[in-house]
Design a protein that fits this description.
The chain has 146 residues and is an all-alpha fold. Helices cover 90% and strands 0% of the residues. α2 runs antiparallel to α3 and α3 (53-96) packs antiparallel against α4.
């Protein structure tokens, strides 16, 4: 495997991916919280006796938002898995003395691309949520001015 100094150096190189993994984990928690709120609101609306057109539109919007968060969760989980594979490859290559630099680099790049996709999905979902919120404010202010 190598000397203790080589192992220490390998561990130091693994710290950056650990920070990425921590960021991904924290972001997955945000995604799960947003999804829970969307589901709660959808259940609230479904429990109503009758749905007017505005409630149906809101439910359709909630469905779109939930789908985006689901994609974000999937991409974020994929990013976490790729970071774990990257770190495992880095250690295994050193321990068993095989060349894994290209594969490890591809895993790390894949993790970054996947995490970027997850953030883009979150951003789109937030735009949908804020856009629907603004519409509600505009409608209320228009009816107050009438």
């Amino acid at each position: 495997m190598g000397t203790l100094e080589e192992v220490a150096q390998l561990i130091q190189l693994a710290i950056a991916p650990v920070f990425l993994l921590t960021a991904v984990a924290a972001t997955l928690t945000v995604f799960a919280g947003r999804l829970a709120r969307i589901v709660d609101r959808g259940r609230f609306l479904e429990a109503k006796e009758s749905l007017d057109a505005a409630a149906v539109r809101e439910m359709l919007l909630l469905e779109r938002r939930a789908r985006l968060i689901y994609y974000a969760l999937s991409l974020g989980s994929g990013a976490a898995l790729l970071v774990c594979v990257f770190m495992t490859l880095a250690f295994a290559a050193k321990m068993f003395d095989f060349e894994a630099a290209r594969t490890a680099a591809l895993c790390f790049m894949g993790a970054l691309f996947s995490f970027t996709g997850a953030i883009i999905c979150l951003l789109r979902e937030v735009f949908l949520a804020v856009g629907s919120f603004r519409l509600g404010i505009r409608a209320a202010s228009q009816s107050a001015n009438v």
